[in-house]
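Tutorial, part two.
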Amino acid sequence: MPEGEYWRFFKEDGSQQYNDWLFINGKWYYFEESGLMKTGWVSWKDLLYFLGPDGDMWVNRETPDGHFVNEDGVAIR
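Running the prediction step on this input gives:
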């Protein structure tokens, strides 16, 4: 469900996704504590991931700020 430029995700049982990743239609998305889909950099278990403007986790590519993420979406330092 859209909320401005952000989305919330409700599971089949009606509960909302919070503070965790979800795999939807072949892509990973992160929903923060407010339940809104996150974009940009996310720190998860001491690793950094980049989520594009559509909220999907980027893999094997350069981010807009010149960093690279590997095949698992983890920033290469």
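The beta strands are 2-3, 6-7, 20-24, 27-31, 40-44, 47-51, 61-62, 68-69, 75-76. In part three we will examine how such features are distributed along the chain.
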